[in-house]
Amino acid sequence: MPVAVPLSSYEHVPETKEALDWADLPTIDLSLNATEKGRAQLADTLIEALRTKGFFYVTNFGISQAEVDSQFAIGEQFYTLPLEEKLRYVPDLENGEYNGYRPAGRRVLSSGVQDKIEVYNIPKPEVPQSFPPLIEGHLPEIRAFQEKLHERVLHPLLTLLASALELPADTLTNLHQWDKRAEDHLRYMKYSRYDAAEYEKLEAGDGLYVTGHTDLGSLTLLFRQPVAGLQIRDHETGSWKWAKPLDASLTVNACDALSFLTGGYVRSTIHRVHVPPKDQRDVDRLGLLYFARPNQGVVLKTLDSPVLAREGFTANEFERAGKPAPTIDEFTVAKQAWQQSKSTVFRAKEGQEILSGFKGQYYD
């Protein structure tokens, strides 16, 4: 069995000093979840955040900064591996597989600049995957971290959302059980820096690393990212705002599956990644994320909620079109294949019907 490789301590880069147009996002403080009054308050804050902003912060979620930094250190060490070793773990990206390594250079960004985005996804234990020795050696720690995220962050948020929808408390957690096979995954994501000439070309175009899009699961959890880049499109105004890094927090957004399950009452949040401010262009951007998805086989049909019935959100895109709602597995494979297929530009397949009743879309 591989032995855990000793890791260097991870050092977070300084935040930007530039005056950016930051988004004003609400905070879900999970320390309030211990009392009935606190839970009621959090449920109200959560549904308001999901309906108006789509993004929110989570604090006091019971995972230490040392545990978080250890995951950043593993991710940092992974990206120092030789490219030929990382390429041994590339899945069938063209056909919707995504667990493992996705190399940079699969998209051409604005002004003809090649992307420098690398991704490494680690699924739940029930999903078979081979790992490089570095990851294998740290797998017990990674598994424990994944489970803590599931139980200490995802489940409390889903329980609060069920309350806001006037559903039994376990309605959504039953669809997202840790010990059931599902396509949840932990991600180490690296945006390598460009040189000055490349940044100039990017800024002459749209200035984006990743164009506006939605995630396909239930909730995405992003650990504090000091290198500014994430931008959020406000549900109400349609304007783009920068996501500010908040100490000891997670930045969370709603995704497609949750939108389907709520008939569009909770909207999947549109976001993009912009080139960083000038004072952060001399560093790479390393991200640590957790993508939560319903259990294998869950049908993405609108839940029977009193709130959804009162508000008129009783059918999602598939149901309104008279099409059968897909399972999360069917939707995941279809959208991943659409997103990941190698192409000249991000918008090469925009508007393509990826499942009957649903078209792939990017956003300005």
UniProtKB/TrEMBL annotation:
This is UPF0676 protein. It comes from the Eukaryota. Residues 25-125 form the Non-haem dioxygenase N-terminal domain. Residues 208-280 form the Isopenicillin N synthase-like Fe(2+) 2OG dioxygenase domain.
